[in-house]
């Protein structure tokens, strides 16, 4: 697999470019929009993620000789298209919801302006990144909201594809997770990494005692010991015997957690290990975390459910042409009209209307001039908030959104966004979007 | 993101190696096993996928200076471990179910023999690949089985992470899909690619007629025209008007498909386009494909449901230490025993018992000597079939399983495996595994 992102693309993006170059429409100015027709089933809000790493992938979206000869040999496109692809780099404009932002049905999450050819060719990549990362962040935010401030580590690398794992760690971190098990996510995105040992480490040694001693010898008493390989009660006794009352943490990965955790806390306290914390990591999701709200758990580790979007592994984002210029240069709004999948055409801007206490109560999508075309009366003054920020201006990427710094920025932005949501947003049960989306 | 696969790994794999080097247990010979405790909810069988590309990732699992300095700077492991990692390449043995094979709860899908350190460090990568690819292949096989021989193209790149998309295309192809939209999957794995145009191409042009004409001018009448941008009936009229009765195919991406498809077929026939085929692509899954069994659909395109495992986005595979040698070199079977997550320790082999007509009726997991240690009376003669094949022998990979050739081999193997399954395997409703797994 090569470094360019250009082949992580559906074939039809290129055949459309080829036919449009042939028909003379490839260079019409267009506006595409990524949005979700609905939230994942029963959710009250979604969280946008992926934008920062998407910008890097758009920067690296280039056709090298290797791609061009493959396309030539496989007769995917013709010579004029190959020439155009050889010179491709996105020179248009992209606005979008800031990463970490809440979104609702119809929110114009990413707005791409450029020629048809240069904008359509990014479709698959944009949707792959936004659909996956947003599904993870949307699930992660719900877990964080029921964790009552206790840290949650993302440990799901093994439950999603090996590159998806890195994206998932990043999306979960943006949505408030505290750390990840994934080393590449630590290196690439600056996310704190964590982890000590698995059951295999205990099983490898001749006894649980030998295993614990090996771990404490290596990492000190402040390490986390996994106590449920054989019997949890004996495991806790042994952990404190080996590490002393200064033991950092115990990890429990099985059992009926409310019962087991309560017993573990009593046992630790009786042993004098009153500052030893309890970490739990057993197939948790937002519901089981909520069910532990009254339990003396100090930290959570979540795997499968967060990296698979907790029942909604794709966010349902689509990328639609909403307007293009005609031969006179005038903008024409367009939309598919045949069925229930119809969408709203035209250039758009978006604003979140807040009440006097700063709580969101309406998502307003403004039809008209497009991004930064907010009319005077759109209510962006005072407590109301414009949602589209510029990411790419005539091909130039705003670098604040990239890399580890961009990831931190998204996490910080997410924290402030969550404080704006009405309390009903945090109900776990199925329901409607917590604020309505209106078109004006 | 760098080319080595070594950082697509959980931190604790490295800290375990570090502590085991320190305690002198790192070099104990171990046997790890990847298996699933259960099939995805209600499924009758699962399909193994990912093995071929996993072998390439294991080959590329090396720690370069970049990884080593990051680990040093972040104090993840100590000097002796850094030295060991610098020289790492897997030198053990790996056996497993051939890619494309059916599996059942407890089937030992991948058996890894090596020192603790060299085998444990591959855990995260092995599980990422097997969990994701197997979940896709398991869903894909069910779709193929209800398609009644009509081709299904994988078009879900935009509904999963951008690298996961390439793996998904490959897994679906192994499980019998005919093609993919994903260019990288075409290039890397030799899978046929397909695709012509999206709604945006029609919307870009001043009329549906201009758009169709542009496409036919470029690709000839044998192309596939997407007819549901405005009104399907008018779209079909226009498609045949533009391309003539030699039009290759129409694609329908919305509407109540049984009704719409029947009407489309009548209309095409009345227009004389009797050889024009009908392709449908609207949020299909195994259930909606089955519901079209009596409809004149010629080809399917499937996206979200196949790349997200149709409700089971991770296959639930785990990687467990099942045996290790002690200081005398004797093998000790081990297993976690504390809870419902208990597993069966010990070296294993596996055989599928077939009846006289070649139909599978039992998955037998043999405890004892391990792979290729089948006893005389295990029934591997005649119609019964040994399931574990050697993939890596003392670090040397069997190259037949790699690349595009390995992908084709897996697809061919899968076809023969499906003929062995009892008919009840193909019921879509929820049920138990179609054959029992027994331990001997």
Automatic annotation (TrEMBL), chains A, B:
Pathway: Cofactor biosynthesis; NAD(+) biosynthesis; nicotinate D-ribonucleotide from nicotinate: step 1/1
Nicotinate phosphoribosyltransferase N-terminal domain span: 8-131
Keyword line: Glycosyltransferase, Ligase, Phosphoprotein, Pyridine nucleotide biosynthesis, Transferase
One biological process term in Gene Ontology: NAD+ biosynthetic process via the salvage pathway
Gene3D superfamilies on file: Aldolase class I, nicotinate phosphoribosyltransferase
InterPro entries reported in the protein's UniProt record: Aldolase_TIM, NAPRTase_N, Nic_PRibTrfase-Fam, Nic_PRibTrfase_pncB, Nicotinate_pribotase-like_C
Reactions catalysed: 5-phospho-alpha-D-ribose 1-diphosphate + nicotinate + ATP + H2O = nicotinate beta-D-ribonucleotide + ADP + phosphate + diphosphate
Function according to Swiss-Prot or TrEMBL: Catalyzes the first step in the biosynthesis of NAD from nicotinic acid, the ATP-dependent synthesis of beta-nicotinate D-ribonucleotide from nicotinate and 5-phospho-D-ribose 1-phosphate.
Similarity section: Belongs to the NAPRTase family.
Protein's UniProt name: Nicotinate phosphoribosyltransferase
Native source species: Glaciibacter psychrotolerans
